[in-house]
Amino acid sequence: MNGPFVLPVRDIVRKPGEMREHQLDVELADRWGEGIVTVEAGETVELDVRLESVHEGILASGTAFADYTGVCGRCLTDISAPLEVEFQELFAYPGEEETDFEVQDDHVDLENLVRDAIVLSLPFQPVCQPDCPGLDPRTGEKLTGSAGSESTAPIDPRWSALRQITDQDGAAGSRSAEKEES
Length: 182
Fold this sequence. Notes:
By secondary structure, the protein is α+β, with helices and mostly antiparallel strands. The protein is 22% helix and 32% strand.
């Protein structure tokens, strides 16, 4: 078995309690993810991995670090951000248990495990900033603040009676404040 995510475990197979730690920097051959943000091919994924021998197989646990890129889900501005994700999976010995991951030829292949952990951690609706106002629905231009967009938005005629009540409350409130000052 070859590949950048394949680690040898021959020296700890069937030796419960034995452990090995690895640090890897892997350059991705393919893009990971299909949403509006992805980890692009050519990006480096950093891995801190611990492989522990247990009775059932090899327990792989660790942390993956990568940078994702894409666009803001509200304003379509380009974004890039770091991602840190933890993973853990048992690679069973062949014939021991039914599992998606097995020790094969005294190696474990972490690629599917790490890819799944990273892709599932990518934000579904990423934003350039938490309070991103998005795009103006009429012009398609990026909004600069929420106050301006509310005052220029057309009001549904069914809600116009509520607008009059709000205006009266504002006027009444200012009149009562004037009386208190005198």
